[in-house]
């Protein structure tokens, strides 16, 4: 019985040691492409409206970003009210953006290109979930200064509780 407990503990610790590094995604400021650092879900306490927040990181070696494109998952309903979408810098100040919502895409045009070595949050306020589903996966692209093409930069997923 004691041996079984010891083997179980050793196996569990080995599994953790093997699995844990796969979850780490150490991104440095040496990257050349902007990316999504993290996402935060503000789950509803009841059915209704809630908020999803994404942190965009523009690394030091990247070009300035002129536009952010967010593709909304099929199970999310987003308000067409552009006041419900905010870009906020690390100091909590709003970044001047022109927002357009067309179907399942949000286009954020920055009045001034967002400089490299910047992190800021995108808050999608007052969104609704159409059905429970398996979660929500947003995909992101940017346009950089001097590049006319959309550059995919990643996805963020939110799990349904």
Quick structural summary:
The chain has 161 residues and is mainly β.
Key structural traits:
single chain, 161 residues, mainly beta, 5-stranded antiparallel beta sheet, 1 helix, 10 strands, 14% helix, 47% strand
Order of helices and strands: HEEEEEEEEEE
Counting DSSP E segments of at least 2 residues, the number of strands comes to 10
The largest sheet, given as strand count, sense and whether it forms a barrel, is: 5 strands, antiparallel
Radius of gyration: 19 Å
State mean pLDDT (0 to 100 scale): 75
Low-confidence stretches: 9-29
Structural class estimated from helices and strands: mainly beta
The helix count comes to: 1
Shape estimate? globular
Ends: how far apart?
38 Å
Strand content: over 45%
Helix content: 10-25%
Oligomer: single chain
């Amino acid at each position: 019985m004691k041996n079984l407990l010891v083997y179980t503990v050793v196996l569990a610790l080995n599994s953790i040691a093997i699995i844990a590094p796969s979850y780490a995604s150490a991104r440095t400021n040496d990257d050349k492409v902007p990316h999504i650092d993290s996402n935060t879900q503000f789950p509803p306490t009841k059915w209704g409206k809630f908020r999803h927040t994404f942190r965009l990181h523009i690394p030091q070696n990247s070009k300035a970003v002129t536009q952010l494109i967010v593709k909304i998952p099929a199970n999310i309903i987003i308000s067409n009210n552009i006041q419900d979408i905010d870009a906020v810098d690390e100091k909590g100040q709003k970044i001047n953006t022109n927002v357009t919502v067309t179907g399942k895409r949000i286009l954020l045009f920055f009045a001034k290109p967002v400089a490299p070595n910047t992190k800021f949050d995108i808050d999608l306020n007052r969104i609704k979930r159409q059905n429970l589903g398996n979660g929500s996966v947003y995909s992101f692209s940017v346009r950089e200064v001097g590049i006319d093409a959309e550059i995919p930069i990643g996805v963020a997923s939110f799990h349904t509780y």
